[in-house]
Amino acid sequence: MDNASLVANCLTAKQIASDDGFMRLLIFRLSMFVLGLLMIAAMFYMEGRFLAYHPNARILLMANNVWILLQSLAYIALLSFDIHRFSQSLPNSCDYLVTAAASVAVRAPPDIAMYGQCWSMFFLALERSIATACYKQYEKTTNVLIGWFMLSVQIVLPFLWIFLMVFDFNWEILKVSCSLVNTKTQNRFLILMSSMAALEIFTVLWLLILYVLNNVRLKMMNSELSRHRLTEKYQICENMRAIAHVFPIIITHFIFFCGTLVAQPINTYLHANQSAYEFHVQIETLNFLPFYAFALPIVLFIRNRWEGIEEGLRRVLVKIKRPVPEEPDDGQIYFQQLSQQFDRAAMRAEPKRSEGTLSRFRRVLSNRRSHHV
Known about the structure:
- The protein has helices at residues 3-17, 20-47, 55-86, 100-133, 145-166, 186-223, 230-270, 276-285, 289-304, 306-320, 330-372, and strands spanning 98-99, 174-175.
- The protein is mainly alpha-helical.
- It has a two-stranded antiparallel sheet with strand order 1-2.
- Helix 4 (100-133) runs parallel beside helix 6 (186-223) and helix 4 (100-133) packs antiparallel against helix 7.
- Its main location: membrane.
């Protein structure tokens, strides 16, 4: 690292340390993550262990929750490190800089957790695809080899991606902010982040297709109850419930993750002549992941209480307009069709019983007449 770059970084770090607004921004973000972490942990505790799902889905759903918690914890550690570093009054401005090793050690955990959550969503969609394709036998199997294999892969992949970022890292530089990006890895970082955004888009579309496919198959089963077992119908319903369970999470993460991914390059393009100090401040400002940590518990609360919220809204709308008759649910349709089958069977059997009784009565009369004769 040449002296000119070192002096520029020292001046930038000094400006950031003397900026009270930037310090308030860091404290605000830390508060968002802490509050979000507490609410997320409470929501996950109330959800339990997903005992209603297949063991493979249970493993992946629990892993997704763990990735979310680890992401919040890692960002809390990162922000706490920056707050402690920039809140000190150091005589030498270069003392605010961090080594490359410290930068990687502090910044890598949030990225690993973020990548892990993206891969967790992908593998959950893959597991639900297997359950959709093998819905006749999948519910009967208790082998969790698929779940543990997918969990192992989604743990290895984030570390592999971090290795691709730092295997030729310049370990001699001193950095202003904790990041995995330098002049060597900037293009590689953009490729990896764009790949993760594409992975999330693909997963969202994939889950939508799976939900529609399972919904169509469920309607076909309801119209042909005698041809399908209850375990098959249960597996289809489980597929839809698992997708509906995880879909709000991935949509929320997609909004804030891709929002950050899009906003930062646009800001760099619009402010091409900005100083290094302005660049670091705006990069931190346009990171929307703290809002994800705060918004996710609200989304989960609405999802878990949606039936009650929908019922309350329906009661309010009843006073405004005439109530719409409720459509029968799957259970009502099932029992209606079952009762119709019993009625048809009874109607077919009733003439036979009447004819048999009448014939027996005639035989009794004929026997009595022959006896008298």
